[in-house]
Write a structure and sequence with these properties.
8-stranded parallel β-barrel, 323 residues, 45% helix, alpha/beta, TIM Barrel, 11% strand, 8 strands, 2 domains, 14 helices
């Protein structure tokens, strides 16, 4: 069999078995050089590919490109499939890579992680202001995030301070979006940062976050971003956007349930939060992926009875995680 024929066979087998991983592109993700990525994350480079696996690598790469993975994620997956094949002594098109070692990652070490949070964070309500935080805390929503948008530093700090005060004495865990220094100043349970925030923090900032006991959640949108997050050993990893959302401009297309399941397998050592366009009808499928939490925005704040809706969604999660 020629190399070209073997490459095509691999490509078609993967596309046949993993068609659900395809997305519909809505934007172009900013890419980084793979060598720079490997250096920054400590990911082991695949320095050489055995001759008998070069067609496999090319076939996987072609399939992943057609499934609309980003170029960097495509290379990571192709390398992982080569490592998996070397480890198992055979190519299995059904077995999408899901082990850290196959992605060139170091073994998971919980001792080096940020301050831990519960493995299953349950219903995770992302809310626009302190009044919403208070309402949802009072009905027992397990995890809350304040995502307050303003250009006024005074208003931002006051909203954070009021939100933290509103959960005192209650069981809800409160994360502050973006403003980690204010979260630290006012004693929040944790902070949630996006990928763009990671680049702006200095080593001293990271030391302060770790030593403070502040829990850290990080947003991710695919393999390369999950691996970047893994270097920082956050308290939890958020994965999305699972479905299309109009709440914020997304740099990446909706990931879908099939990708979410694969991401959850690779990141299973962490508490995992699914986020992005998730409705009540989506909860069973999202939870079956292996995540321990579902984050919602519109599903609560746009409902006619938000408190009642929060109770229903929380109960769905609790029942499915117990099953």
């Amino acid at each position: 069999m020629s190399k070209g024929t073997e490459e095509s066979r691999v490509e078609e087998q993967i596309l046949l078995r993993h068609a659900a991983l395809k997305t519909h592109k809505t934007a172009t993700l900013r890419e980084s050089n793979f060598e720079d990525f490997a250096k920054a994350t400590g990911t082991q480079l695949l320095t050489s590919i055995p001759d008998d696996l070069k067609a496999l690598h090319k076939g996987v790469s072609s399939a992943c490109a057609r499934l609309e993975f980003s170029p960097l994620d495509t290379l990571l997956i192709a390398n992982a499939w080569v490592r998996q094949t070397l480890r198992t002594i055979r190519f299995e098109a059904d077995q999408w890579p899901s082990l850290r070692e196959d992605f060139g990652m170091t073994p998971f070490d919980s001792k080096s992680s940020c301050t831990p949070c519960p493995k299953n964070l349950g219903l995770y309500a992302v809310l626009p202001d302190a009044s919403w935080i208070k309402r949802m805390a009072e009905v027992g929503v397990s995890t809350l995030q304040l995502r307050f948008k303003s250009e006024d530093p005074y208003l931002i700090e006051k909203e954070i301070e009021k939100s933290i005060q509103s959960v005192q004495g209650l069981q809800s865990l409160l994360f502050i979006n973006d403003h980690w220094e204010l979260a630290l100043k006012h004693g929040a349970y944790g902070v949630h940062l996006g990928q763009e925030d990671l680049e702006s923090l200095s080593p001293h900032d990271w030391t302060r976050i770790r030593e403070s006991g502040l829990r850290l959640g990080i947003s991710t949108h695919g393999y390369s971003e999950m691996i970047r997050a893994d270097v920082l050993k956050p308290s939890y990893i958020a994965m999305g956007a699972v479905f299309a959302t109009t709440l914020k401009k997304m740099q990446t297309p909706p990931q879908g349930l099939a990708r979410l399941k694969q991401y959850a397998l690779l990141m299973k050592d962490y508490p995992l939060v699914a986020i992005g366009g998730i409705t009540e009808e989506d909860f069973p499928g999202v939870l079956s992926s292996g995540v321990g939490s579902v984050a919602v925005v519109r599903a609560i704040i746009q409902d006619i009875d938000p408190e009642q809706k929060a109770g229903v969604l929380g109960e769905i999660i609790e029942n499915q995680l117990r099953a």
